[in-house]
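ZP: hey, is the NAP complex queued? I don't see it on the tracker
AM: it wasn't, my bad. submitting now with these inputs:
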Amino acid sequence: MTAKIIDGVAVGRKIRAECRERTTALQKSYGMTPGLAVIIVGENPASRIYVRNKVRASAEVGIRSTVFAFPVGVEPATIIAKIGELNADPQTHGILVQLPLPPQIRIDEVLGTISAEKDVDGFHLYNVGGLVIGNTVFPPCTPYGVVRLLEHENIPIEGQNVVVVGASNIVGKPMALMLMQRDATVCICHAKTRDLAQFTSLADILVVAAGRPNLIGPEMIRDGAVVIDVGINRLADGRLVGDVDFEGVRQKASYITPVPGGVGPMTVTMLLVNTIASAERIARRERKFDRAVGGL
Ligand code: NAP
C-alpha cells in the first residue's frame, strides 16, 4: 500500500476562499472588517516568520491585522495593559500573543488577560475548559486544522483508535480532547511512555506532535493507518522534516501528511477561521441589540 498524501496547502486554500466569502458578507451586511491583533515580544526569528505569515494570510482573506511588537525586556504589565486596550477595542475581534515569551513574562498570566471572546488561539483557560466539556468558543488552531484535514478526506473518526504522540497544552492535549469529543478511543503518549511502538501500532489514526525527527518508523504503525505528522524540525543540513519517517511510513499507511505542506498551512488557516467566527458572533449580537433597542 502507498499512502495518499494529504495536501494541506490545497485544503487550506479552499478554506481560505470560504474565509474570503465570509469577510465579504460581513462587510456587506454589517459594514464590518474582522480585526486581528498580534502581540510579539523580542526578536525570535521563527516567531517573526510566523507573525509575517499570519499578517499576509489575514490580508489575503480580508482580515485587518495589526502587529504590536515589544522589545525582549518589556515589563509584563506593559503587555497586559495593551491586551486590556485591545479587549475594549470594538475593531479588534481576535487577539493573539505569539509564543514563546521571554522568561520574565509568565505565559499563563498574560494569556489569562485576553478576553475569552477574542482568544482566537484558544489558549485562555475558559476555552481550554470549554474544550474539556465539548463546548469551546475557539478550538486551538493546530488540532482544529488536523480535524478539518480528516474531515476533508472523509476519514471516519467515530469509534476509531487514535493515538496522539505528544501531550503539550497547545497540540497534544487539545488534539486528544477534540478527537474524544468525536467519539474516538484516544490514547496520549509522551516522552516517558514506555515502549511507544506498543501504542502507536494500535492506532487507526496516529497524530504525532513530539518535535523529534524520525520518531515514528514503518515498523511502529499498522497497515493502512492514517498518519498525521504535526512535527516541524529543522535538520543540521537545513532541511525541514516532521516527526515521521515519511518515505518509510508512506509505504504502509493509507493517508499521510507531508512536512512541509501538511498540518502547517492549516494552522494559519484555522486562525483566520477563528477570527472571522469571532467577528460574525459579535456582529450578530450587535444586530440583535440594535433590533432590541430599535423596538423599544
Ligand atoms: P512541546 O511543547 O515540546 O511538546 C512535545 C511533546 O512531545 C511533549 O508532550 C513531550 O513529552 C512529547 N515527546 C517528546 N519526545 C518524545 C518521545 N521521544 N516520545 C514520545 N513523546 C515525546 O511541543 P509542541 O509545541 O506540542 O510541538 C510539537 C511539535 O509540533 C514541534 O515539532 C512543533 O514545532 C510542531 N508544531 C507544529 C505546528 C504546525 O502548525 N504544524 C504547530 C505547533 C507545533 P513530555 O510531555 O513527557 O515532555
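AM: back. The chain has a mean pLDDT of 96.
ZP: great, adding it to the tracker
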